[in-house]
Specification:
The complex is a heterotrimer. By secondary structure, chain A is mostly helical. Chain A is built from 18 helices and no strands. Helix content of chain A is about 75%, strand content about 0%. Chain B is mainly alpha-helical. In chain B, α11 packs parallel to α13. Classes of the chains: A mainly alpha, B mainly alpha, C alpha/beta.
Chain lengths: ~400, ~300, ~350
């Protein structure tokens, strides 16, 4: 990856790396946006792998179309016939998944798996029928509907942009409805929404984008486009609308940049590079997303542990107990509460007394209101006046003072 | 002819179907039915690396060995990544699988092109994927029961039989733990069963069974057998032990029935060469599942 | 949604086990007689020859005698079973049980080798221990095979693209058939000699017409890397958009460099193949035309599969004739529209 590579990359980003690169950058970006937006709702619906099933379910239709058109003496390799055949069998597959999910106890994954494997197997069986018939033009039938990204044509780019645009508009307009049927279908039904029709509409949108994607960029890439950007968006927000927008954005940018990268150097297969770009964005989000990422979670855990160590350490100081845990000692020293020889500093002694008092208040609260205390996540983890309302705290302090005066209850 | 041609295919098909059906039971309970499909794609980088490591001049056996090991390592890596993603709690199995398998497949294609291995005629699909019909037991001509014949039985059969035996032993010995982890991981954890490790073991065994089965009979049959027998059994019974037995039954009926349909019924109906047995086995299993689903379908809610 | 529990359908384990055993036994028992009666035994005394690819079958037919009447007169001493039809791509071929049975029963098996039929290789190597199994592609001397720079022992399998190399295959088939049926040696020799003369004529025709294309325009841009031997034999620069491996995928930089090639060399025609999708080629054309180049699809070539069965292009001679003639005419050279024998485009 030398200077020449990055110079080319810059040019490719500006659509200056040749006609094909420009077509692919724009077309793939549009596809990424469309698949990203629609894919979010499929993901929320628990049907992330539906794009895989749809792709595989096109095969029997393609094979059947080939046989029928050959029988009628037409040009069996004509794309429209293949497209119709593939779409019909894919649609049947979608309906089968709906039926299995709704009417049996099998989950979405089993429904998708059943349709994927059975339909594809029927397709392969038909292919072995074709291969023993003396039909012309049969070489490569199974790959007729499978495209590859680098070979995207300008007409395809146009179609993708229009279709993806329409799908995005529909999906974003119906965000509320789609989210409702994903999270709480009973609620949606109670609002009078036609749940089954909406479900089928969502599946139809997914079918459209997957079939178009299959023919233009191939099987693995369209599946990646329908799953990776939505999964990425999941690490940045919880609500459907922002998720859809982020997913569409990630899809579009990932495809654009990936296509540009592929145009910048030799031996960089376009579809594969785009998938890896999206995977990289996903991995980065998984790790680095501020709230939901792994790194953030680890940091949160560490902070929590440090807080516990600090608290317990100060309590031990208040009780004049020796501290054996090295980490606790480290934390206390770092906070200036402990000297090198293990004796508390002035600040440390003060903090320890405060902590002991805080703990006493918490314990009192727990004794008086055990159920509330049990339900509180922050019981004894944070200072009581940061968690409970001031009047409650004042009342507890009063009671504690009384108990101390009366000699009952130790600090 | 039966012993040379059909018997090994039937045996191989049955064993492969049975071992996939066996692990499929746990996959379906953990909502990971598509793991077989995912693994069929992630083996690509493993195959390419295997080829690169051994080099083009390697003997056929060396190449096959390298391919198997590469595929298995790739499958295990994929399974580990999928678990990692699932554990964030934000991404469900299907999406985790989708991200991992597409990324690994793309890495395989990139590796293929970058190392110029694309100029070499690697038939990637056939490097790993076996074929049910082309397993023959030529030594059986001298009598299938003879020791010489047994010694010369196709290696794929021994491999898959070993994996099946190993799987069956694991399932029988650890049925209690497997049941707990599959139905209620939290309870399992609370009872002292290391649910995460058991879960990973299930996935790892799935990877092993998948690679062994791909090597024996190819991918179409395997993906179907990870789903259909267990799904059929699941709609017919609540109890895990019964589900396992049923899945094995469906797997074997599917394998034998599908083979018969492909090899004999199809020619009888006019297709002289028959149809792909692997595909028909998958279709048969699917049909059995369809019948079971329709028979037990709930009313529309 | 409330999921109701299913109606129980299975009763006791005993019942299941018995059913399983009975069913299994029945199916296995059925398999024996069924597989027996499904065997189509070759005619009495006739030797069964199996061939894999269409090209290989074609070469074997040479030795066996192409003429139907001739075969009749010989009392059908041979029966040739070609696994793959003329128009079938070896990469996506799925063998069935019947195909394997044919291979098992055959007295001789002919295949291409050189890793073309990767799926059948282990089986064929196993069969080679007991019967005559000949890899026609490997009859090509090692020195004349196109080897890969980095991977020793791996060659380009498309040797049929060069008629002067295919001679080795035809001769190897003839030798094997002669060994199988020594009594027919003279017939085989005569058939083979006649065919080799045809091959020479085809080769000469190819050299002649392909040379009529101006040297700057001798660039063959195709969908995938199948024409290496062709290019080497006739002095053409051969460029495929996609690599040879089954999972190979094209990159944008490659298409761009091909566009540059088209523009700089003034290439007027690119070529699609019958067994590979034409999409990449169409994209290449769009890119070239955007730079103002005048280029179009010259013709559809036969690479991994031959033409439709029953036509002239469905034979080896016709396939090469078609390729050579189309390439020449598309690149501005001179060749008869109906090919060497005037047979292109008609049913044989």
């Amino acid at each position: 990856m030398d200077g020449a590579f990055w110079a080319e990359f810059g040019k490719a980003l500006l659509l200056q790396a040749g006609w094909n690169a420009a077509v692919v950058c724009l077309g793939a970006a549009a596809l990424g946006a469309g698949a990203g937006v629609v894919g979010v709702f499929a993901l929320l619906r628990g049907r992330a792998m539906m794009s895989d099933a749809i792709s595989h379910a096109t095969l029997p239709g393609v094979a059947a179309a080939f046989l029928l058109v050959s029988a009628w003496g037409g040009d069996a390799r004509a794309l429209p016939a293949m497209l119709i055949g593939g779409s019909v069998s894919a649609a049947l597959g979608v309906l089968a998944v709906q039926w299995i999910s709704a009417r049996t106890r099998l989950g979405e994954d089993a429904a998708i798996g059943t349709v994927l494997s059975s339909f594809f197997a029927v397709g392969v069986a038909l292919l072995t029928v074709i291969q023993q018939l003396p039909l012309a033009g049969q070489a490569g039938v199974e790959r007729l509907l499978i495209g590859s990204a680098a070979g995207m044509l300008d007409g395809e780019r146009e179609t993708i942009m229009i279709v993806a645009g329409v799908l995005c508009v529909i999906a974003i307009a119906l965000t509320r409805e789609f989210a409702a049927i994903a999270f709480d279908p009973a609620y949606a039904a109670s609002l009078g929404w036609p749940v089954r029709a909406l479900d089928l509409l969502l599946m139809a949108l997914l079918l459209a984008i997957v079939v178009i994607g299959l023919t233009t960029v191939g099987l693995v890439l369209i599946i990646a486009l329908a799953i990776a950007p939505p999964a990425t968006a999941r690490f940045w927000c919880d609500r459907a609308r922002p998720m859809a927008l982020i997913s569409g954005g990630v899809g579009a940018v990932g495809c654009y940049v990936g296509a540009a990268l592929s145009a910048s150097g030799d031996n960089l297969p376009t579809g594969a590079v785009i998938v890896l770009c999206l995977a990289a964005v996903f991995a980065l989000s998984l790790l680095l997303s501020p709230q939901r990422g792994i790194v953030a979670a680890l940091l949160r855990r560490r902070r929590l542990q440090n807080r516990v160590h600090l608290r317990q350490g100060l309590l031990a100081v208040a009780r004049s107990e020796p501290i054996f845990d090295a980490r606790t000692v480290r934390i206390l020293c770092a906070a200036g509460y402990l000297r090198g020889d293990g004796a508390p500093t002035e600040a440390g002694a003060v903090a320890a007394k405060q902590m002991a008092r805080d703990q006493a208040l918490w314990n009192l609260y727990r004794d008086l209101h055990p159920e509330e205390a049990f339900a509180l996540a922050d019981w004894s983890l944070r200072p009581i006046d940061e968690v409970l309302p001031p009047d409650l705290v004042a009342g507890l302090m009063e009671q504690l003072a009384q108990a101390r005066r009366g000699g009952i209850g130790a600090a | 002819m039966f012993w040379v041609n059909d018997f090994p295919s039937l045996l191989l098909g049955s064993l492969a179907a049975a071992v996939c059906g066996l692990w499929g039971n746990f996959l379906i309970l953990r909502r990971q039915s598509l793991l077989g499909d995912a693994i069929s794609h992630v083996v690509l980088p493993g195959i390419v690396v295997g080829f690169l490591v051994v080099g083009g001049a390697a003997t056929a056996t060396a190449l096959q060995f390298a391919t198997l090991i590469g595929a298995l390592l790739a499958a295990l890596a994929a399974v580990a990544l999928i678990e990692l993603i699932r554990r964030t709690g934000l991404i469900e199995s299907g999406a985790a699988m989708g991200v991992v398998f597409t990324a690994m497949f793309a890495a395989g294609v990139l590796l293929l092109e970058q190392t110029d291995a694309s100029k070499v005629h690697i038939d990637v699909e056939h490097a790993l994927m076996g074929g049910l019909e082309r397993v023959v037991w030529t030594a059986a001509l001298s009598g299938p029961g003879s020791l010489a014949a047994l010694a010369d039985a196709p290696a794929e059969i021994w491999r898959i039989a070993l994996v099946y035996l190993f799987s069956a032993i694991l399932v029988v010995v650890f049925l209690k733990e497997l049941r707990m982890v599959s139905f209620d991981p939290a309870f399992a954890e609370a009872s002292g069963v290391p649910a995460r490790w058991v879960g990973f073991a299930i996935a790892a065994m799935t990877a092993l069974a998948a690679v062994a089965a791909f090597d024996a009979v190819g991918s179409i049959l395997v993906i179907a057998m990870f789903v259909c027998p267990a799904a059929t059994a699941r709609v017919l019974t609540d109890r895990l032990a019964r589900q396992i037995w049923l899945s094995q039954l469906v797997a074997i009926i599917g394998a034998v029935g599908g083979y018969m349909l492909a090899a004999f019924a199809a020619p009888a109906l006019g297709l002289e060469r028959g149809v792909s047995a692997a595909a028909m086995i998958a279709v048969t299993a699917g049909l059995i599942q369809a019948v079971a689903m329709i028979a037990t379908a709930k009313r529309r809610q | 949604m409330r999921k109701t529990s299913p109606r129980p359908l299975m009763e006791g384990r005993q019942l299941k086990r018995r059913a399983l055993l009975r069913g299994g036994a029945a199916l296995f028992a059925l398999g024996g007689p069924l597989s027996g009666c499904m065997q189509t035994a070759p005619k009495r005394g006739a030797k069964l020859i199996a061939a894999t690819t269409g090209m290989v079958a074609d070469a074997v037919r040479v030795a066996l005698g192409r003429d139907a009447a001739e075969a009749e007169a010989e009392g059908k001493a041979f029966e040739l079973s070609a696994l793959m039809g003329a128009g079938v791509d070896p990469h996506s071929y799925r063998e069935t049980r019947a195909d394997v049975a044919t291979l098992l029963k055959a007295d001789a098996v002919f295949w291409n080798g050189l890793f073309l039929e990767a799926q059948l290789e282990p089986l064929l190597l196993k069969l080679a221990k007991d019967k005559t199994v000949v890899a026609l592609g490997e009859a090509t001397p090692t020195a004349k095979r196109r080897a890969h720079d980095d991977y020793a022992g791996r060659y380009d399998p498309h040797v049929w693209m060069d008629p002067s190399l295919w001679r080795y295959a035809v001769r190897a088939a003839a030798d094997a058939i002669t060994k199988l049926a020594p009594e027919r040696a003279s017939r085989v020799k005569a058939n083979t000699a006649a065919y080799l003369d045809e091959l020479s004529a085809l080769d000469a025709y190819a050299k002649r017409v392909l040379a009529s294309v101006s040297s700057t325009r001798r660039v063959l841009i195709t969908a995938h890397d199948a024409f290496g031997y062709f290019g080497a034999a006739y002095g053409y620069e051969v460029v495929g958009i996609q690599g040879v491996s089954t999972e190979s995928e094209a990159g944008l930089a490659r298409i761009r460099s091909l566009v540059d090639l088209i523009v700089s060399r003034g290439v007027g025609a690119v070529f699609v193949e019958s067994s590979v999708s034409r999409r990449n080629v169409d994209a290449l054309l769009e890119g070239a035309r955007a730079r103002g180049a005048k280029v179009a699809v010259g013709a559809e070539l036969f690479s991994d599969a031959m033409g439709a069965p029953g036509t002239y292009e469905g034979t080896y001679l016709g396939m090469i004739d078609h390729n050579v003639t189309s390439i020449t005419r598309a690149l501005g050279g001179e060749a008869p529209a109906r090919g060497r024998l005037g047979k292109l485009g008609e049913k044989s």
